[in-house]
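Here we describe the complex-level prediction in full. Unlike the single-chain runs in Section 2.1, the two entities below were treated as one system.
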Amino acid sequence: DTGVSQDPRHKITKRGQNVTFRCDPISEHNRLYWYRQTLGQGPEFLTYFQNEAQLEKSRLLSDRFSAERPKGSFSTLEIQRTEQGDSAMYLCASSATDNYGYTFGSGTRLTVV
Amino acid sequence: QKEVEQNSGPLSVPEGAIASLNCTYSDRGSQSFFWYRQYSGKSPELIMFIYSNGDKEDGRFTAQLNKASQYVSLLIRDSQPSDSATYLCAVFTFQKLVFGTGTRLLVSP
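The structure predicted for the assembly as a whole is:
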């Protein structure tokens, strides 16, 4: 296990379609985070899991967004009825504790056309 | 007021100079502070963290924290063209990392 893995790396979808992204954290990390980043901005927090429990969701996460982390291992982020404004880099990160920062995956770049 | 504020830059320095990157934060209760480097099209990479007032050095990087002024900075000594990237300040607040918008650093040969 060499780091946080995200799949796919790139996704182009038509407006109105549903998309799902997957994140595999570092195996010993029990905390998993999803962030979204648009050009010229810093990563914005979306949601956070500790083991399988989703502990916080940002106001940015509309009803079209849902995230899961079954069995406390990998996580999925689904966006339903995509809109052009959903185009962004979706970053997953994991950590064992809060003290040493997060390790980010390579991200999934979503383009909605 | 944004929770974490950075000047977006670009900050241009010549090769070999010291680059100074600054960040302010709003939550006085914050205890942990991080600097990430992000190359264009890549994900953020952790380079430094600091918890205590004062300086923390790691190679060419020095992080400085002043909790009374709610101010964090990152100094990069002997800047190299490979240091050209966006530097993100992140503060652990309300149970999660909150990021600034980042400062773009350009190091010219």
